[in-house]
Amino acid sequence: MPSSYSWSLPGARKLVPHEAPQGRRINALAAYRLYGPPRLEAFTAGRTWDSYDLLAFLRALPPARVPRVVVLDNASFHTSDVVRRARPSLARSGLYLYYLPAYAPELNRIEAIFRQIKHHGMPVRSYETKVELQRAVEDAFSDYAVSLHSRRRRKPRPAA
Questions:
Q1: What residue spans of 14-154 are helical by DSSP H?
Q2: Would residue 59 be called left, alpha or beta, if left means φ above 0 and alpha means ψ between -120 and 50 degrees?
Q3: Which of 34, 50, 51, 157 has its CB 3.0 to 4.6 Å from that of 82, i.e. a possible disulfide?
Q4: How many CA atoms lie within 13 A of 153 on its CB side?
């Protein structure tokens, strides 16, 4: 975090150590099952995702007895030729891709989960190392997944 206030002795220059944030990002791919028992699957990496990562993620999702629809936004690696060519094989395995309209993140249910994880699941905003950051992101996703299961087990309260 940049310092907004500091002091030094007269005639001395104050040096504030700063590490550039480039290369200290953790990206996440996540799938959220809405129906049936809720489930959250997430993969994290300290690099930029590409189409091959997306396909590996989709193929690694747990199998289901019914066809599944995966909702994607229009990120470039979601709409690439590699993904377009893989759609028939994904459909044969019961996995269908549905694309949201452009500039409509409010329609994507997982955006709310990302917001909860980013702002509430990770209260610490700064980490010393990339490994600590990745661990914090993975723990936040794991904690949220556990909370989904506990919400499902609650019995409805009687109406007034």
A1: 51-60, 81-92, 109-116, 130-153
A2: alpha
A3: 51
A4: 5
Whole-model pTM: value is 0.73
pLDDT (tens digit per residue) in 99-153: 999 888 788 888 889 999 988 998 887 888 888 889 999 999 999 988 887 765 5
At 65, give phi and psi (nearest 5°): -80, -15
> Tokens 């709409």 map to which residue?
79
Contact 141, 30 (CB under 8 A): yes
> Could you give the angle at which helices 81-92 and 51-60 cross, rounded to 10 degrees?
10
58-73 pLDDT, tens digit each: 999 888 888 889 999 8
What domains can be seen in the chain, in order of their start residue? 27-152 (3.30.420.10)
